Structures are given as C-alpha cells and as structure tokens.
Amino acid sequence: MENFKNSPLVKKIGFNRIVLCGVLLLMYIIFAIVSPTFLSYSRILSALNYAYFLGFLALGVTFVIATGGIDFSIGPVMFCAALMGGRLLVKDGVPVIVALLACLLVGFVFGVINGYLVAYMGLPSFISSMALMMLAKGVGSVFTQTQSISWPQGTDPNGLGWFRNLIKMKVGGVDIPTGLIWLLIVAVICAIILNNTKIGRYILCLGSNKEAVRLSGVNVKKWEMIAFIISGTLAGMAAIAYVSAYTTVTPSGGDIFNNDAIASCVMGGTSMSGGLASIGGSIIGVMIISLLQEGILAMGFQKDYQYIITGIIVLLAVFADVRSRRRKN
C-alpha cells in the first residue's frame, strides 16, 4: 500500500482523490444493482441537476474553509439571489440577462459584507455567516413579499426560458448536460486561482498560520475578505444554476445546501482547520452527495437516510484529517 501511495502517478493525482473516485464508482454500481432504473439517462441528468448548483456552492466555500473559516450563509444567499433576480424578471419585466446578473450581484454583495465583518471587524466567521444567513432569508422574503417565484420554463412563448440551455440543452431530441461543462470550467479556474496565483497562496497560508503571515507584512485582512467574496459570488452563480435546473424558488430556504456543500469539501480533502484544500476533491465530493441523494430516492427510501450516510462520511473524513495532521506534527 505504501509503495502504491508513493508512486509518482498516485502522488500527482492524489491518493484521496483516487479513493473518492473508487467510492463514487462503488456507489453507482450498488445503486444500479439494487435499483435497475438507476441506470436510466434521466436518473443521471437528475443527479447532475443537483450537482450543478451544489458544485458552485462547494467551490466557493472551499476558499473560505481554506482560510480556517466557515460560511453558513451560502445556501440562503443562493435562494435570496434567485428570489430577487426572479422577482425582477417576473414582476418587473427586466431582461433575462439583467436578472441573471442581479443574481451574481446579490451573491457578491453578501460576500463583501460577510468578508468585511470577519476580516475588518474581527467577527468569528461562524457568527458572521449565521447572521448573514438570517439576513439573506429575511431580504429574500421581504423583496418577494413572502411569495414563491417561478422562473420561465424553456417552452416560454416569449422565449424567456433560453437561460435553461445553460444547464440542459436539447440536441436532436437528446438532453445534453451543458451545465457540467460550465461547472468543470469554473472548477478549473478555481483550481488555478487556489494553486497557481498569489490569491490562493495567501489564502492557504492564512489557514496554516495566520499570525505568521501577518507578521511577514502581508495584508491578511484583504486576502481573507477576498475568500468570502469568492464564496458569495459563486453562491450567486449557484442561484443561476438552480433556477436553470428547477422552476420554483421558495422564501426562507437553502439551509440544507450549506451542509451538503461543506460536507462535499470536507470529504474531498479540504481541512476544516484550514491551510489545505482541494478543488478537485470538492467536485468529487459533490458528485458523491448528488449520487447518494438520487440513489436513496431510486431505492424508495426517504431523504433522511442520505443525512445519516452523509454524516457518517463527514465524520470519517474529519477523523482522517485529524489523524493525518497528528502524524505530520
């Protein structure tokens, strides 16, 4: 086993990623055996619909967790952005592109506020993100007068549903998951930022030893705030993915997606202590969560079973991270 771990190819890919891919494949095989309908193309598309917006949330929160912080506001911010953008589109008649840009803007603004409170005001990220979570719920509900918002369908007679092609495009009568392309493109960009730019290096250094970075003359407040801005902006992007895959957005929702996104990051190899993060691992984690949800439904079980299995996986991932850090120390 040690020889396998130390082989050049495994080191380049990452042992944890290989294990996660194995878990993903094993889950797919088990679900396919237990429920043959799981092999249908529609089931795969359904799982991907969940993976798109969850993937953007996980990518964003990976940067925050890498600093040693946490962001519990991403799910409600996504819903708030979707509600506000939908209200502008459906009620106020703005162009679709303006509504989509509004989703991004809402996420960006919440990211700025969250980052400022943590980096410059000194609030613990746990407290700040919890406050922003409640604020996002309230703003979305007030802006829509506590009413659900339904974005236009792809068959809208006025052609307002064109944005749904961002997630799923019909070519020759076959649905093509275009959202997967967008998710992978954004994931590659995030990986480049985290691993090959000054932004990523400082964000990871903050998680390793924030005080040492500060004493070296680096503006730690600036880079910590940038991590939250990235998280908020990607939550706005997740809102676009959500409304492109689904139709109705309800006020005061989104809490559960915080847990799924953070769980995806943790099982993907991002350390809750900060200083260590994996964009590729987060994406694989998202696929595991999405496949797990679809598999549980395909087997006829309630979603509660997904929570149990996800919780166990996260506990094992955190335990493995703690043991790994102890060995290194």
Description:
There is one protein chain. With 329 residues, the protein is mostly helical. Helices cover 72% and strands 3% of the residues. The chain contains 13 helices and four strands. The strands form two sheets. A two-stranded antiparallel ribbon has the order 1-4. Strand 2 and strand 3 (174-176) form a beta hairpin. Helix 4 (41-66) packs parallel to helix 9. The relative contact order is 0.19.
Run of helices and strands: HHHHHHHEEEHHHEHHH
**Quaternary state of the chains:** single chain
Which class do the helix and strand fractions yield?
Answer: mainly alpha
Main β-sheet description: 2 strands, antiparallel
Classify the beta-strand content into a percent band: under 5%
Count of discrete alpha- or pi-helical segments spanning 4 or more residues: 13
What brief labels describe this structure?
329 residues, mainly alpha, two-stranded antiparallel sheet, 3% strand, globular
